[in-house]
Amino acid sequence: MSTECDVKKLVRSPSGLRMLPENRAFTSPFCLEEPHWVPDRECPRCMHCEAKFDFINRKHHCRRCGKCFCDKCCSKKVPLPRMCFVDPVRQCGECSVISQKEMEFYDRQLKVLMDGATFSVTQGSCEKSETMVCRLSNNHRYLFLDGESHYELEVAQISTVQILTEGFTPGGGNSRATGMLLQYKAPGSDYLKQMKFTTSDDFNSNKKMSASWLAAMHKAAKLLYESREQ
Ligand SMILES: [Zn+2]
Ligand SMILES: [Zn+2]
Q1: pTM of the full predicted structure?
Q2: InterPro entries from the xrefs (predicted)?
C-alpha cells in the first residue's frame, strides 16, 4: 500500500503538460484538481478589468481558477506544482500571488517534512511515550514513524493538526513550536485517534530541526484543508 516506487506519466492537458502518478490513488494529498474553464460564450469581457474581447483583445483562461481574462490581466506564467504542471503556466493576478506563496512550501518545507525530525510520541491517553523519527513519505501520502515500533499514518486520514507552542503572546509574538496534536481516522474504524508529538530532550534529537518540522507541518495542514474544501 505505501509503496514508494510510484510510477509517473506525462499527460497533456489543454492547460499544459502534467506529470501524474499512473495510479490515481497515489496522487499527492497536496494536489488540486484542474478547474473547469468558464465557457467562452459566458465571458464576453475580461473578468478583472472588464475589457471587451474581440479578435485583437483575445481571452485567456487562468490555469488555476479557470476564469477568463485579457492578456494584460493574465500574463504571468507561474509554477503550479499543486496541479502537477511541469512548466510554469498562465495565471491571473490573484492566483499567481497564491501560487508564488505556495512555492515556498514546495521549495523548502516539503523537503523538511521528508527529511524528518525526532519527537517524543504518545498515543491517545497512553502515559508512555516513545522517541520516534517522523517523516513524510516521498509520495507525500504517509507519515512514517520509526522508533522501536513503526507506524504509517495516511495523510488523507488526518483530520486535525494542532500545533502546540510555548512563549505564546496574544498578538502572535515570539512563539516557538514545541509539539503537535494529530487526530486521524484509523483504518477500519470510525473513531478518531489522537497522537501527541513533543520535541524531546533526547540526546539524538535536534530541537531546532523538530521545530522547523512542526512549522512545515503547520503549513502543510493549511494546504490540506484548503484542498478538502474544494
Ligand atoms: Zn483584463
Ligand atoms: Zn486565476
Answers
A1: 0.84
A2: FYVE-type_Zinc_Finger, ZFYVE21_C, ZFYVE21_C_sf, Znf_FYVE, Znf_FYVE-rel, Znf_FYVE_PHD, Znf_RING/FYVE/PHD
Distance 91 CA to ligand 1 centre (A): 12
What's the confidence (pLDDT) of residue 8?
87
Last residue of a domain, one of 83, 112, 141: 112
Condensed to tens digits (0 to 9), the pLDDT of residues 66-96 reads 999 999 999 999 999 999 999 999 999 999 9
Is 4 part of any domain? no
Q: Are 136 and 213 in contact (CB under 8 A)?
A: no
182 and 88 housed in the same domain: no
Model pLDDT, residue 187: 80
Q: Note down the domain range covering 62.
A: 30-112
Ligand nearest to the CA of 97: 2
Ligand number nearest to the C-alpha of 15: 2
